[in-house]
Amino acid sequence: MMKIFLIVLACIILAWLVYSFFRRRTKLPATRLCFLCGGESGYGYSEVVKDVKRVRPICRKCLISQLENDYSNFSGRAVVIQPVSGPPCYAFHSIRDWSKSFKNSKIDDDVRSYLLRMDTTCQDCGQRANFLWIGSSGLTKYNFGNVLRKGFAETLLPMNPPPISLCRRCCVRRIAKKLEEEGITYLEVHAPKGAEDGFVMPMAQ
């Protein structure tokens, strides 16, 4: 009797292992495949910032194409801090929403101030500029909160070249170049939307 029980138990355990194996095989690829082309993804893309349920996997090629579309349709202006490895997200926040949520943060004041006096001509191609590009040397996954709190004028600008004005196309080109050259990946990328001024920065959501 005991022998039969052990055989049945072994069969149940084996069946469960097989089921778990195939269940994992059917689930895992869906989390890694680009939602646009079906290729292997290395990023997450979201239409709405901080909405984890709506972050979709995307490959670098499709991500750049999507960013080109998003940045081209954005009618506001934004400070864009260049990508850097470490922080898990690369996200846009409007000044209005950020000011309401984080009243002690100074980055929104810096964004307003620098956008008001930015050159309206793209330094790379001469077209109309909507973005102010700022270097990210010194920014890490450990101190991005300090940059948000104190602003980039005090924390990043002393360690980086002067900000430069860029058009939509040239801004995305610089983002793409940085991602490719340094192999930077992000769990979530959220591009500028609408018409409100804001900033794009490596950070955690």
Structural class computed from helices and strand pairing: alpha/beta
Q: Strand order across the biggest sheet?
A: 6-5-3-8-4-7
Mean pLDDT: 87
Helix coverage percent: 40-55%
- For the record, give the distance between the C-alpha atoms at the N and C termini, rounded to a whole number: 58 Å
Count of DSSP strands: 8
One letter per element, helices H and strands E, the order comes to HEEHEEHHEHHEHEE
What general form does the structure show? globular
Number of helices: 7
Round the Cα radius of gyration to an integer and report it.
22 Å
Can you describe this structure?
This protein has 205 residues and is of the alpha/beta class. The protein has 2 domains: 1-32; 43-203, no CATH class. It is built from 7 helices and 8 strands. The protein has helices at 2-32, 60-73, 95-101, 107-116, 144-150, 152-155, 168-182; strands spanning 43-45, 56-58, 78-81, 89-94, 131-134, 164-166, 188-190, 198-203. Strands 6-5-3-8-4-7 form a 6-stranded mixed sheet. A two-stranded antiparallel ribbon has the order 1-2. Helix 2 (60-73) runs antiparallel to helix 7. It is globular, with a radius of gyration of 22 Å. Residues 5-30 have low confidence and may be disordered.
